[in-house]
Design goal:
about 170 residues, alpha/beta, Nucleotidyltransferase, domain 5, five-stranded mixed sheet, two-stranded parallel ribbon, about 20% strand, globular
Length: about 170
């Protein structure tokens, strides 16, 4: 599949200058699979790998509003990125932004409706899921800021739900 995607994009590994990947938040299995593939491609191509958050990949140019990214946890909560970290927040306990807010992410509509019901000035942004272009742009911003010394590892907000099997 990776070879087919690279071929469709008309890219051969020796042409790569960097591999960009989202580190989360999101599905535990999806994040781990994507990171494994990205690390493998970067290692094979001998290029750096840059990890960006979903929030970084969905960020738009400054529009004078707080920018929030809301990712659905499918448990009545969202992973809420307000630009200074990500937290799991109950939909019925969203923080007060204290001013106008822009919202992106796959849970943006649910968050926007709750905030609007409280009288908050909300602007829905079009991004629901990170696009390849958004991930690449975020990686370019991150790498242009200087060497990225953090390791490209999963961003987990919640503990994994998988538990070892117990013997009866």
């Amino acid at each position: 599949m990776a070879r087919a995607v690279l071929a469709q994009a008309d890219i051969v590994p020796r042409q790569l200058i960097m591999v960009a990947v989202t580190i989360g938040p999101g599905s535990f299995t999806g994040i781990r699979a994507a990171l494994s593939l990205a690390h493998g491609i970067a290692l094979a191509a001998k290029v750096p790998i840059v990890g960006v958050t979903v929030g970084e990949a969905l960020t738009v140019p400054d529009n004078g509003r707080q920018q929030w990214v809301a990712v659905d946890t499918r448990r009545g909560r969202v992973f809420l990125d307000r630009g200074f970290g990500v937290a799991a927040v109950e939909l019925d306990a969203l923080p007060d932004p204290g001013g106008p807010v822009s919202l992106a992410g796959d849970a943006a509509i649910a968050v926007a409706s709750r905030l609007a019901a409280r009288g908050v000035d909300v602007l829905l942004l079009p991004g629901r899921m990170p696009s390849p272009a958004g991930v690449a742009a975020a990686a370019r911003r991150r790498s242009s800021a200087g060497p990225d010394t953090r390791s490209v590892q999963p961003l987990y907000v919640d503990l994994p739900e998988a538990r070892p099997a117990t013997r009866a």
